[in-house]
Amino acid sequence: MITLKNKVQLIGNVGNAPEIKTLESGKKVANFSIATNEFYKNSNGEKVQNTQWHNIVAWGKIAEIVDKYVDKGKEVAIEGKLTSRSYEIEAGEKRYVTEVVANEILLLGIKGEENSTE
């Protein structure tokens, strides 16, 4: 049960082409976002879609997999941990970021394959 203290599992579609950086040490880091969708019926019986966006960070071998196989629109499953950090912009304003640091990624779509929507 100790591994369940900070565990996130998401299945969604990649919102933009992953940003890949190679650090001076040679280690890669990938940053991208995924969208998860929930559907429900409102009080008028109309189907409503609620989309949530999640920032994902992948390091090392997982970042290499993201670089090679993940592209905008592809469906992926992510398992990782939720992290928060803050930074200051030039104007001195503090910004806060919440991200999922990926421990595993499962490719549910293949790069270059067209996704169909209904």
From TrEMBL:
Keywords annotated in UniProt: DNA-binding
Q: Which gene encodes it?
A: ssb
Record organism: Lacinutrix neustonica
Q: Which GO terms describe its biological process?
A: DNA replication
Q: Which GO terms describe its cellular component?
A: nucleoid
Annotated signal sequence is none
Q: By its UniProt entry, which InterPro entries does this protein fall under?
A: NA-bd_OB-fold (IPR012340), Primosome_PriB/ssb (IPR000424), ssDNA-bd (IPR011344)
PANTHER family from the xrefs? SINGLE-STRANDED DNA-BINDING PROTEIN
| Quaternary structure and interacting proteins, as annotated | Homotetramer.
One Pfam family name from the record?
SSB
> Could you state a single Gene Ontology molecular function term?
single-stranded DNA binding
Query: Mind giving the lineage of the organism this protein is from?
Result: Bacteria, Pseudomonadati, Bacteroidota, Flavobacteriia, Flavobacteriales
Protein name, as recorded: Single-stranded DNA-binding protein
